[in-house]
Amino acid sequence: MSLTSGLHSPRTPLRRFLDRELSAGPRPLRDSFRAQHQTDNLLLPGPGVGTEAGNIGTAIDQRLRLAFTTAAPVDLATEDGIHLTGGIGRGAGLRMRAVGNKLAARLAETVHRLDLDNRALSMDRAHDEEEDLARMLLAAAWYQVMARNPYGFTYTPLYLTALDDPGGFTLDRLLQLPNQDMVDDVVHQLYLATTGPLEALRARTQAQNCTGGPTFPGVNITADADLVADGLLLDFKSTKHPFARGLSKQTANQLIGYLLLDTADRYRIDTLGLYLTRSGVLATWPVEEYLSLLGTCRRDLAALRTVVAELLADCQADTIRTGRRKRTKCTSSSSAWPLSSRPPTVRFAPSRCPTPPAAPACTAPAGAPCVPPPSASDRTWRQGAPQPRSPTYKRRSWIRPRTGWL
Predict the structure, then answer these.
(1) What CA–CA distance (Å, rounded) separates 396 from 169?
(2) At the N or C end, where does the chain have fewer CB atoms within 10 A?
């Protein structure tokens, strides 16, 4: 189970626990974010971007991470996607994996050659170098789709081109697939970052104190944040509506989810932040202030991490990848899908997840609001039980018009 899916459904143990503990809701935190979002500038994508906005966001996220540290030029999701493409069909999948390995090698060589995390140089490089790098990052983003959403991968230009002509699918052909609007969008978002607070943050930090795409081992959930820079956990967002949707409830839960998953305090996170790539705004909160704005008055950070770790340790909600013709688990061999060129079916294995523990008594100081947890009759917390109908409820049925049938 991934952190995103665990927060998306209101019935997972993690989501139910956070909804109960965060008694203030996201509104106070959203008001604080809007107070820090003091700009009217907004960088909009070109008309050629279309449905590729999400992959552009993935590409600019990786480009900004590389500006802080180049320890991992190719992220784990891209490596997994390249490996998984080898099991698609008989020839196209192997060709996509071979081209993906060449892409990863060229991307790593380019990143180290440009010395992107050198603080003595600016965040950006020459324009033609940035365009070439943007094309490689966009291609890598398509491979990430394979690791995160196999069905969505079948609609990417990478998959369609390789399936149409496996023999002519080369690395040069792959790098020509992103149109100019997509490349310009990535490059312009980088240029905006060079003139804003993110450049100042980069100058204050050192590459050895930054971690790009941090993971959280020791917990039974997959999650990879964007960046940890000297104790600041930073999440990049490329939304076109930063003021209205920059800090949604999903984003607020995602940030605190990363914080709670660091059970061993491996990254020593003391500040949470959000950077809007299209408006150039960096909003940050100390951990204590962030928890206070969300209304966590019943448990401290250590207690919250302990409870979350216990919840995830007993919840085995994982996915099983199966083929379309044979119900077999997906392997790394080329015969994983012998009779189909589509990715595997992903179905959730049945699991018995624990119920979140009861919240202790409120320990808020005198005069501070402390909203009690929802009662058992609340529809959100009743694990799928039907809501009782009102005594005055009457089911509507078809009533014949007075004028008869028309």
Answers:
(1) 59
(2) C
Q: How many other β-carbons are positioned within 10 Å of the β-carbon of residue 40?
A: 7
How confident is residue 378, by pLDDT bands cut at 50, 70 and 90?
very low
- Give the max Cα distance, the chain: 83
Backbone angles phi, psi at 355, to 5 degrees: -90, 135
82: closest CA among 49, 114, 106, 113?
Answer: 106
Question: Concatenated DSSP letters for 123-170?
Answer: S---HHHHHHHHHHHHHHHHHHHHHH-HHHHTTSHHHHHHHH-STT--
Query: What one-letter code names the amino acid at 340?
Result: S
> What single string gives the DSSP state of each residue in 318-334?
-EEEE-SSS--B--SST
The three state secondary structure string of 353-405 is: CCCCCCCCCCCCCCCCCCCCCCCCCCHHHCCCCCCCCCCCCCCCCCCCCCCCC
Q: Which of 50, 11, 25 is nearest to 240 (CA)?
A: 50
| pLDDT tens profile 29-69 | 999 999 998 888 899 999 999 999 999 999 999 999 999 99
Domain extents for the chain? 3-312
- For residue 346, pLDDT over 60 is answered with no
Low-confidence winner among 56-60, 131-135, 236-240, 366-370 (lowest mean pLDDT): 366-370
pLDDT (mean) for 377-403: 45
Q: Are 304 and 263 in contact (CB under 8 A)?
A: no
Evaluate whether 157 touches 145 at the Cβ level (below 8 Å): no
The pTM for the full model equals: 0.78
Residue 264: which of 313, 300, 305, 233 has the closest Cα?
A: 305
